[in-house]
Amino acid sequence: MELLTSVHLEKLIKGCKKRDPECQKLLFKAFYGRMLGVCLRYCNRREDAQDVVQEGFIKLFDKIDLFNEKGSFEGWTTRIFVNMSLDFLRRNKVQLVSIDSDGSKIELRNEEKISQNLFETVSQEKLIEAIQNLSPVYRTVLNLYVYEGYTHDEIAKELGISTGTSKSNLSKAKVNLRKILIKYIEAKHAS
User: Fold this and answer.
1) Do residues 171 and 143 both lie within one domain?
2) 1 part of a folded domain
3) Domain count, the chain
4) Does the CA dihedral 75-76-78-79 come out positive or negative?
5) Nearest-CA neighbor of 17 among 57, 56, 62?
6) In sequence order, what are the residues at sequence separation of 6 or more whose Cβ sits closer than 8 angstroms to the Cβ of residue 74?
7) Measuring CA to CA, which residue among 56, 57, 39, 58 is closest to residue 48?
8) Count of Cβ atoms closer than 10 Å to residue 3 Cβ
9) What long-range pairs does 32-36 form, CB within 8 A, spacing at least 24?
10) Which of 4, 11, 22, 121 has the fewest CB atoms within 10 Å around its CB?
């Protein structure tokens, strides 16, 4: 995202509320990269994420009058794009409930927990690629919990699953993500 001063952002928002095309264009340019990153965390294919971003900006410009200027514009915007991504997954009938969603607790051994060193070893690009390789349900729960700050109760409500299933899916997502990253690191060191 381009560095925007709060004054400049405020002017852009006011212009967008007046449906000024130039302000919309500048706001789009300023937030496109960040919102594409948000959508890529949910959509498996870049083309799908780009489509969601386009739809998201249409919705943002349509609903910008609802923005309460006392809150964070970036937070409000991110929420729109997360919701648009979730809508995309639902529209495309992506299974958001894991097959083994009995809600039972899964005890993880210490070695299955993702270590901070593992994340420090890989680039942001490889981490995003690894997250995109998770199943849709694991990727969605991981993104909502880790990146968007949702609680398990909020995830359960949003996805229509139990809180226990949300916790289970997050644990499984972390285990699978760790396996993917370890394979990447091993391949990197082998070459």
Assistant:
1) yes
2) no
3) 2
4) positive
5) 62
6) 1, 31, 34
7) 39
8) 6
9) 32/57, 33/1, 34/1, 34/74, 34/78, 35/77, 35/78, 35/81
10) 22
Residue pointed to by tokens 């927990």: 113
Q: 99: Cβ–Cβ under 8 A, 6 or more apart, which residues?
A: none
Place of tokens 């499984």: 172
pLDDT at 28: 96
Domain boundary among the residues 91, 125, 160 is at 91
Q: By C-alpha distance, which of 39, 37, 16, 38 is closest to 28?
A: 16
Q: What is the pLDDT of residues 64-110, one digit of tens each?
A: 999 987 889 999 999 999 999 988 988 887 654 443 433 333 333 33
Query: Which domain does 36 fall in, by range?
Result: 6-91
Provide the whole-model pTM: 0.68
Q: Are residues 74 and 131 in the same domain?
A: no
Nearest to 21 by CA among 51, 49, 57: 57
